[in-house]
Amino acid sequence: PNSSLHSTVFRIEPRSGVPTDVSARFQLNVLIEPISMISMTEKVRKTYFPVMWFENKAGVPDSLVFKMKLMANLPEILQAVGWIQIGVAISAGIISLIVFLARRKSSEDQCPILNQSHHEEVDDEGYDEDQ
Prior knowledge:
This protein has about 130 residues and is an alpha+beta fold. About 55% of the residues lie in helices and about 25% in strands. It contains four helices and three strands, in the order αβββααα. It has a three-stranded antiparallel sheet with strand order 1-2-3, with no helix packed on it. Strand 1 and strand 2 form a beta hairpin. The longest helix has about 35 residues, at about 75-110.
């Protein structure tokens, strides 16, 4: 017998355990041989006579093949999405820190020359009063 035509096949998707291709085949044979008490079978050679052939096939429909592939790769996809979210969150935190520090520094040094001259005038007035 040709194994590609006569064997039983059961393929399973390894991660999900879902059967993707099933082919069950079998043949029922009857043994025919001479029987001493029946004269009609005296000249019959010992042989197996095929009586019935059974074949049943099932598989995943084409409309579900993409969904099966997606389901098989789902852990890697979700892991990649998680790492992307962590990267975006860290980037947003760094950008927010830079903006916060830049605004804080710019509010301190808005007019350093004016602030310095104002402090000098206050210091000068206080110096004159003491003398």
